[in-house]
Amino acid sequence: MTRDTLKLLAQAVAIALALSATANAQSPIMPKMSLGGDNKRPLTPEEKAKQDALDRDYKAATNKIPDKIVNDPWATVRPAPPVPVTPAPAPKKKAAR
Length: 97
What we know:
Layout: H1 3-20, H2 45-64
């Protein structure tokens, strides 16, 4: 075999391996890893009070934000929606005497 043929064969094998290998995230055997979310220590009363104060301040600050005003740049370009036409009431006939 020539050097070019071996190069082509090596590239084909590498591509086939890359396409047939499964991703680690899709593996059925997942390692038991934790980013520290499970091992939290309980908060002290001072820390709990501080956290509650922060939460109250955050909620108060977000309530001060005004509602978002919808900006419709095409509002003046669009025609007004058609007004439904209601039939005029029929005139009442006077009773004959």
